[in-house]
Amino acid sequence: MFLFFRELLHNIYISICDLYILTKLQKNNPTCKFYGGSKITNSLFGYYNIVFNDVLIDSCIVGDHTYIQKKTTIFNATIGKYCSIASGVSIGPGIHKIDGISTHPIFYLFNTPLIKKYSNKDLFVSSEKTIIGHDVWIGERAILIDGVVVGTGAIIAAGSVVTKNVAPYSVVGGVPAKVLKYRFNEKEIDFLLKSEWWNNSEEWFEKNYHLFTSTTQFFEKK
């Protein structure tokens, strides 16, 4: 019975701490919305971000208007503006050493949440920064391995496992993910990348949002 109440009090304490962190995060980012159950540490946000329920984010930078759906986990990543990240996505899940006798981190990491560790220092880099460009759509349950670079405008199909860099405006899918097609031709992709439309002001978007429903209108306007 004692152990039950001790665990209950511990869980209540953790919940209060998480709520305090979210409340402080909301105060520091008044244009953003952070839903309950999310745990966010060592991360910076832009304007108008939404982080839905039960999201875990650590050591990340998130650009303006990017939203992250429930039960997604993101470690050590830089994410651009206007990105759409679906539920259950895993970005930067970590790297294990595979050329030793064991793959267990107890033998080669010191900075780890493991209860016991044998190594007295980190002998291996267990995380590499993942870079995601602007206007990227990542489908449900996709996994992006540490260190990949996802180009602006790319689409990653649901359930895909991304193990290598993704070209701008490509659509990739599968395990491992492969290019299925490109959203635009080379000339149009070059035009879009050079336009850097994602850096326009809020006033510009409010006036010209209708251009985004038609590629013809957009290319003529820009």
For the biggest sheet, the summary is: 9 strands, parallel
What value does the Rg take, in angstroms?
A: 20 Å
On the 0-100 scale, what is the average pLDDT? 90
Put simply, the count of helices is 4
Contiguous runs where pLDDT drops below 50 for at least 5 residues:
none
Shape: globular
| N-to-C SSE string, H for helix and E for strand | HEEEEEEEEEEEEEEEEEHHH
Strand content: 15-25%
**Coarse structural class:** alpha/beta
Total E-strand runs: 17
Fold and architecture overview:
By secondary structure, this protein is α/β, with parallel strands linked by helices. The protein has a domain at 184-222. It has four helices and 17 strands. It has helices spanning 2-28, 186-195, 202-208, 215-221; strands at residues 33-34, 39-41, 44-45, 50-51, 56-62, 67-68, 73-79, 84-85, 90-91, 130-132, 137-138, 143-144, 149-150, 155-156, 161-162, 170-173, 178-182. The strands form two sheets. Strands 2, 3, 5, 7, 9, 10, 12, 13 and 15 form a nine-stranded parallel β-sheet that branches. Strands 1-4-6-8-11-14-16-17 form an eight-stranded mixed β-sheet. The mean pLDDT is 90.
